[in-house]
Amino acid sequence: MTERGRGALLLAGGFLACVAVAAAAPLVGHRAIDVGRALAEWGDPRSADAFIFFRLRLPRVLCALLVGGGLSLAGLGLQALTRNGLASEYTLGVASGGAFGAVVTLRLGWTAVFLGLPATALGALAGAGLVAVLVLGWAGRGRFDAGSLLLAGVTIGMIASAGILFVQYLADATQSHLMVRWLMGGLDVVGYGGLLGILPFLLAGGLLVGLHAAELNQLLQGDELAEARGVAVTRVRGAVLAGVALLTGAAVSVAGPIGFVGLIVPHTVRLAAGLDHRRTVPLVVLWGGVFLALCDTAARSVWAAEVPVGVLTALIGGPFFLWVLGSRRRQVRVL
Question: What's the total number of domains in the chain?
Fold first, then answer.
């Protein structure tokens, strides 16, 4: 089967998988529910089945689909810009900036809600936005260098991590516990308000990356060749970097720093469907959402006590990263 044929098959399969996960995952959990009763009593505040299905599990699954798709697309965009398959959505330091903003709001005890987003999510979004502006400003100085961009992102991320440790040192026991739990990453406190709050940012970031899919194909061949073919390299790179920052910031604001999604899914999709971003962009969005939703369902139902989904993705992503690194080293030896 050709890459185009596999891409079409994966696209249809990804759409069906999203629908299946959205319908089935809310039924999975330690407490069995009667879905017929939940649907019949959806407006009854006294119905336990309706409350669990519509207020606890369904928004959580929908958030996993959105966050997983956003993180996967952010990872794909950054890997294309840097031409580095080991880059992920957290390489720019945006996630660390978001985490710093979140722990600051926890330390200050802010509880306000705006546009459906709690203070922690707003702080994370503000911190991620600040780091994104710094990184984008750095990328816009002089000629673009992928290595310098990655080093700048890592450095800013380390500074933000130091700030997180300092804030934790100043926090009391209760605040420190909340910070540690948030930093593990999770979807257990997300409601419909949070979904609607991040949706505009995810849509804007997705459009900025997706509308430049054809140009990303040209950038894979190098800046000089892309410019010779009429690609406005600086404009495209700035737009995609902004999209990556929006996607990552929105995801971190409601779910915390869930790692490795933007590494695992793009690599797997490229192996199956090829390098053409016009095919891989929709595929990583669909399958990234499915991947995170399945991970979250397992994290809250397999073990007696719920495990933060960020822990589970790290357990999967760590060995995957080592496998990718080993594959690259073997390719270098062959060459």
Answer: 1
C-alpha closest to that of 289 among 30, 126, 74, 107: 74
Residue 8, domain member (yes or no): no
pLDDT along the chain (335 residues), means of 10: 79 94 88 77 76 86 94 92 80 84 88 75 84 74 68 85 92 88 81 84 94 90 82 85 87 87 92 89 96 93 83 88 72 41
Structure tokens at 212: 């430049």
- The pTM assigned to this predicted structure is 0.89
Question: Using an 8 Å Cβ cutoff, are 214 and 278 in contact?
Answer: yes
CATH code at 239? 1.10.3470.10
DSSP H helices, 142-276, are 146-170, 173-183, 192-210, 213-219, 223-228, 233-255, 261-273
Distance CA(283)–CA(12), nearest Å, equals 9
**Axis-axis angle for helices 309-334, 261-273 (nearest 10):** 50
